[in-house]
Amino acid sequence: MKINNKFKLQIKSVPDNVAFARVTAAAFASQLDFTLNELEEIKVALSEAVTNSIVHGYENNDNNYIELAVSLTEAGMEMCVEDNGKGIEDISQAMEPAYSTDPERMGLGFVFMQSFMDNFKVESEKNKGVKVVMFKKVSSVDGKPEH
Question: Which of these is catalytic: 17, 38, 41, 52?
Answer without folding.
Answer: 52
